[in-house]
Each structure stands twice: as structure tokens, then as C-alpha cells.
Amino acid sequence: MDRKNGKRGSSDRGKASDHIQFVKNAGSPAGAAGSAINRNGGLSVKTGIIIIIILVLILIIGGSIIYPLVSMNSSQDTCGNGSPYTGVLVINGEIGSSADPDDTYQHDWILEQIRTMKEDPDNEGILLYVNSPGGGVFESDELYNELKKYQKKTRRPLYAYFDQEAASGGYYISASADKIIANKLCTTGSIGVYMGPVIDSSRLLSKLGVSVDFIRSGENKAMGNPFTPLTKEQKAIYQSQVDEYYERFAKIVSEGRDMSLEEVYEIGDGRSYTATQALENGLIDKIGDYEKAKKIMKKDCDVGNFVVVQYEPEMTFLDYFMELNNTLKQYVEEQGKSETQKTMEYLSENGGRMFYYEAFD
Q1: 149 a catalytic residue
Q2: Would 89 be classed as within a structural domain?
Q3: Residue 216 belongs to some domain of the structure
Q4: Residues 321 and 108 sit within 8 Å (Cβ to Cβ)
Q5: pLDDT tens digit at each of 361 positions of the chain
Q6: Does a structural domain hold residue 40?
Q7: With CB atoms 3.0 to 4.6 Å apart as the test, which of 1, 36, 147, 328 could cross-link to 169 if both were Cys?
Q8: What is the three-class DSSP state of 216?
Q9: pTM here?
């Protein structure tokens, strides 16, 4: 399965009736003032220093009040707080193991949420909210298996909603869902596995007069290194591994979507599909937005309260003041720049484009 970075964060689309479950708090510092003072602005250095001191005091006082409240409100021990609920489990970003707490996808945390809901008598089902380009074979399969255990033990409904993309591993984990609803502009499918890139720089090194050798126990021990080309045998070894993983992927899709393996092979050549194409090929059941996905699940399964279960990176009190310090530092540095310097820096950072826009649905 291909590994790419997620493009956009997934979130509940703002319904007041939804609740949000955070394992960590998502506090954010108050914004500091922008570049309001410049050399030609008429304010003295003394005035600027006074303004900075006032900002620091405001942020310290505000932070001491707001931060504990954010921390308290963002830490719930149970999803439903004693009431029946359906967990909207957000799968956002590349599926893989991550040691960075700021990554949107946290594999171990996601697995733990599924296990918790599996044992929670108040849980009525899971709605997967998927916005992922895929990820690692191991992690995708582990997540798929945990969802299957949830289904087998609880017999509760498992639905999936595809946001911007649910490709490769993002589709893999969703294949067993009772019903899949995809956004009309979603990219999905990409049923396949790849390994690489395997780079061969041997010819370039040869031109530079550089030779590379390995002391190894067998001819295939160092295969795949960027300094020597793959032999036919080594290519065959890698291909056999990819084929085995692909067979499992195809079998999972076949079972989850009630297709024959031949049908999966025909559409599962690695290509991605639009929502319309995916519907035509039987990879999804409906096209609609997040609200429609909830309505469909509610109607089909007679579930009510949807609770968003989404990882949010923690901001400690130290993080708060580190970000405050960086903001103030940037603010002070901006005061000594002329408008020409600011303009030239902006053009440099944005590829020479003074104004540009990106269109979103």
C-alpha cells in the first residue's frame, strides 16, 4: 500500500448535537498582535516595549485561566458519559506507527479506542470517519483485525464514511464495514501493494570513480541497497512478497464487498476511483456527505447519539509559553524590517506569487 501524507484534517462538521472525545487536551494560545509597528509608523521603541509587556501579562493571566479549563473540558474518561452512543472513530492521515505526538494518526491510541468501545455496554456501533491515503501493510492489517474483533464480539453495526480520500490502506481497513458512504469528491480504491522505491545509483557512482561493496552472509542479504542493482532473483523475491500481501488485500475486499476474487482482480489493479466510479464498481454503497452518512446509519440501525472519537495532540503549559515566546520573538523581529524587506520575504516564501488561491468544495 502506498504511503503518503494526509492532505487535510478530518473533523466533525460542526453539529451541536455531537460530542467530542479527546484523549489529550487541544489547548491553543491566544494570538499575539501582528506587525502593527514599523519604523515609519510613528511609535517609539519605548511604546513598543510597553505594548509587548502588556501582551505578555495578558497572555500569562489569560493562559492561567483558560488553559486549565481547556484541559478539564477536553479530558473525558468515557465516550457516552453513561448514555448510549455511536463512536465516530476518526482515521486521519497516514496509517502507520508514529512516535511523534503531533501526528494526526496515532496507531496504538486508535486500537485502544476500538477495544474500549468493544467492552463498553453503552456503545451502539462505530462509524469510521476515514481521511487517509493509505499506509503500512502491518498497521492497516492490525487495525482491520481489531475492527473485525469488534464486529464479531459485539454484533454492533460498523459503518464507514469516506471524506477526501480513503485509498489503499484507508480502503483496506473499511472493507468489512456493513455500509460505506463516500463524499462525492472522495478518491478511493487504490487496491494494491507496492514496495519501494528501490534506487540504483551504481552507474552514477561508477562515473564518479566510486565503488561500493558489502561483507555479507549471503548474496541476498543486502539487496535493495541504493548502491548495487537488483538481480533477477532479488526482484523475484520482492515480487513474491508483494503478491502475497496483495492476495490478502484482494481476499479482504472480496469477503467484505461480497465479490468474487476475479471481480476484485479486475478492478483492483492499483488505480484509484472517484466516488461515482467506486459506486459503479461496487466498492461503496452510497454517495453523500458526513451528515448523510449519520442519517443513513441512524435509519438503518436505530442509533442516536454520535460521539466523535478523535486524537488531538496535547499542549502542555510549557508548550503554551514556548509558542508564546516564538510569537513574541517573531513580532519583535518584524518591527525592524522595512515594508520592502517584508514584501521581498513574502515573495520569496511564496514562489514569487504575491496573491494566489486554492479552491475547495
Answers
A1: no
A2: no
A3: yes
A4: no
A5: 544 444 444 444 444 345 444 444 333 333 333 344 444 545 566 776 777 777 777 766 665 555 544 443 333 445 667 899 999 999 999 999 876 777 788 999 999 999 999 999 999 999 999 999 999 999 999 999 999 999 999 999 999 999 999 999 999 999 999 999 999 999 999 999 988 888 899 999 899 999 888 899 999 999 999 999 999 999 999 999 999 999 999 999 999 999 999 999 999 999 999 999 999 999 999 999 999 999 999 999 999 899 999 887 765 556 556 666 677 677 667 766 777 776 666 655 544 433 333 333 3
A6: yes
A7: 1
A8: coil
A9: 0.68
User: From CA 105, how far away is CA 183, in angstroms rounded?
Assistant: 21
What three-state secondary structure class fits 90? strand
The number of distinct structural domains making up the chain is 2
Alpha-helical runs (H) found in 3-121: 45-73, 107-119
Q: What is the DSSP letter of 123?
A: E
The conformational region for residue 308 under phi > 0 = left, psi -120 to 50 = alpha, else beta, is beta
How many other CB atoms are found less than 10 A from the CB of residue 291? 13
Which of these is catalytic: 168, 176, 254, 272?
168
In sequence order, the 6+-apart residues with CB closer than 8 A to the CB of 242 are: 193, 194, 195
Boundary-marking domain end, from 214, 241, 256: 256
For the question of residue 221 being annotated catalytic, the response is: yes
Residues forming beta bridges with residue 126, ordered by sequence position: 87, 158
Residues 174 and 284: their CA atoms lie apart, in Å, by 10
Residue 284 CB-density burial (10 A; 0-12 exposed, 13-18 middle, 19+ buried):
buried
Of 15, 149, 153, 221, which one is the catalytic site residue?
Answer: 221
In a domain, 326, yes or no: yes
Within a 10 A sphere around the Cβ of 216, how many other Cβ atoms?
Answer: 10
Domain end among 224, 239, 256 = 256
Write out the DSSP string of 170-225: HHHTTTT-SEEEE-TT-EEE------------HHHHHHTT-------SSTTTTTT-
Query: Which of 309, 307, 319 lies closest to 101, judged by CA?
Result: 319
Range of the domain at 201: 196-256
